[in-house]
Amino acid sequence: MELPSGRSKAVTDEARTLAWAYLSRVAEPPCDEIAALVGDVGPLDAAHRVAAGEVSDALRERTAARRDIDAAQADLDLLERRGGRLITPDDDEWPTLAFASFGGSAVRERPHGRAPMALWAIGPARLDEAAERAAAIVGTRAASGYGEHVAADLAAGLAEQDVTVVSGGAYGIDGVAHRAVLAAEGLTVAVLAGGIDVLYPAGHSSLLHRIGNSGLLLTEYPPGVRPARHRFLTRNRLVAALGTATVVVEAGVRSGAANTAAWARALGRVVCAVPGPVTSASSMGCHTLLRTGAELVTRAEEVIELVGRAGEFADEEPRPIGPLDALSDAEKQVYEALPARGVCSVDEIAVASGLAPTAVLGPLAMLEIAGLARRDDGCWRLVRRPASPR
Amino acid sequence: MELPSGRSKAVTDEARTLAWAYLSRVAEPPCDEIAALVGDVGPLDAAHRVAAGEVSDALRERTAARRDIDAAQADLDLLERRGGRLITPDDDEWPTLAFASFGGSAVRERPHGRAPMALWAIGPARLDEAAERAAAIVGTRAASGYGEHVAADLAAGLAEQDVTVVSGGAYGIDGVAHRAVLAAEGLTVAVLAGGIDVLYPAGHSSLLHRIGNSGLLLTEYPPGVRPARHRFLTRNRLVAALGTATVVVEAGVRSGAANTAAWARALGRVVCAVPGPVTSASSMGCHTLLRTGAELVTRAEEVIELVGRAGEFADEEPRPIGPLDALSDAEKQVYEALPARGVCSVDEIAVASGLAPTAVLGPLAMLEIAGLARRDDGCWRLVRRPASPR
User: Fold this and answer.
1) Minimum distance, in Å, between the CA of residue A10 and any CA atom of chain B
2) Which domain of life is it from (chains A, B) (predicted)?
3) Rounded Cα distance, B129 and B86, in Å
4) Domains of chain B, each with CATH number or no CATH
5) How many contacts does A have with B, using Cβ atoms within 8 A?
6) What value, to the nearest 5°, has the Cα angle with vertex A163 and ends A285 and A20?
7) Chain A residue with minimal CA distance to B355?
8) CA of A33 to nearest chain B CA: how many angstroms apart?
9) CB contact under 8 A, A389 and B256
10) What percent of chain A has a predicted confidence (pLDDT) above 70?
11) Could you say which of A64, A93, A379, B294 would form a disulfide bridge with A343 (CB–CB 3.0 to 4.6 Å)?
């Protein structure tokens, strides 16, 4: 491969960027061997060695098909023409936080959760800032009306609280989540399973353009790479890694969303799922996740509690307050002992409630103050009676 | 109080039964003090001491209102006329298993989960056998169509697998569960919050009669006691205690079903909840339970797994099998590298897949055998392509 030589910082930076671009294409990600080599000798040396075939047998095998293809400059030119940039571990915006748990030297311990070589990106958002407070919202392409409603609600609620919503740009739940964030003028990131110039699915190219204009389009695949089954699965680990929590809104029993959730779990991220009717096939994957340890979430506040900064907690669900809630047990017992109609004596109340006659007087006085009972010619009557409880 | 005296076994048995009946009315359950006294001196002595007022100040207070009421014989006569029986700790069918964790000497350690004095019962089922393999199904009176559907399904599924379904006889989820069991000719137990002669709610008196004819009607309250708020809550602990698992099908944020679940948890029983739409108020209580540790269940098999004898496990949900499921990773990668239309060479496949040219030959041969790829004049083409994955 051709790399500029020389000693100035600018030239070195350019050479490193070209090396990252070359490395990003030469092995199909994720690739243990190339990650280990880059970790050991850095991107420049790694690129030279791979191009020269001076690497381990395993890596030579993994790079044999593409090591003579040097499209790095052309790829970067294409990206520049589209207003994009290659985000590499050299850059300030490389999301160290999000990838820290499985990047760099941790590669060997967690081989399945390795960081990408580099990220091809289009969009105004800074990746490190976007990932600082982010949740992934994912789900089946075959979303139900219920799932779409919940996804839109969650995504808008997160956007309103400045949580970045990460997803995969697919039909169904992904698309609904992205759109709801755009409508709420929030920040959304779409991670693609192919080149940044291969907007997929085609029916979402306008949506993906809008995301690239206001948020961030990201992919670890160099230009021209077309989405494929294993690339969707590989892509899912980036969606999971970028969100502090991954929320599965709807998922069938076999679902890419369940795969993203598995990545999230493997990466030590929080896995959340939204429940739905047990009669709905598109909630079955969510229920399986919930049966195996995922957090149940019903609204954006509960997700924010999981991704938010310390001290952010969801408010308690408002609970209706009944007139008897402030009463002590003895007061409730006396209250219940009062007849629905008519009056009764203190002794009768004692028998009906099971309390001693002396023990009903205090509660009766409290009930009178609360307006729930009334003294009537030496006896007592009920003032009002709420609906009978279960 | 009048108790028969004498030494023959039959006379002693009768005296003990009268004593249990007297004790069952004299203090409003649950009553720590009377349980402790019976545990110490047995029912005969306990009844004599309570009637004579020769007890602790606390217990004298608790029994002051009713200690001179001796309705034991009349209560037992009424029960006998209705074909019922008083089940006491003296009887073989007293469910030692279900109450073991909080009965007898454990009273002081778990004061809130104490066993009833005795159980007024009507029905052909033996309580110990019914409780051996039982689940409680409970839920809101304001059930939705969804909740009713799920409750009926669960109850019928449990009945078909010889699991006793325990509930509270209320409108809504309880009633649906009881009815589904009766329709499936299974065994159902209704635990009442008042006397066995006070069938409540009135609209369920026919249902409750049917339960008493084929299953079991139970209550710890003596005849004539009318249901009241605190009695529903006290009753709920028996529903929870009789089921190895308590399944909440639907519950609002304030719900008696949530109270039953709290009892089940306090008693060390399994708490289950059925999820529903997050947009449905009648599933909110279930979701709160699920967020705080309840087991998520979607069908009867999953409940049976929790209540069943060792070795009973729910079958895995059937999963659809795709044509690519049997492929290795390399085979999948090669498969995805084949163009949707037209043919390509081995080298082109190697570039597209990121595998070495020598590494694609084996996978191609396997794909050919699987009928997924076809050799065509030295090149390769796809034979068929399933729907693109997420």
Assistant:
1) 32
2) Bacteria
3) 16
4) 1-71 (no CATH), 82-307 (3.40.50.450), 329-382 (1.10.10.10)
5) 171
6) 85
7) A62
8) 14
9) yes
10) 87
11) A379
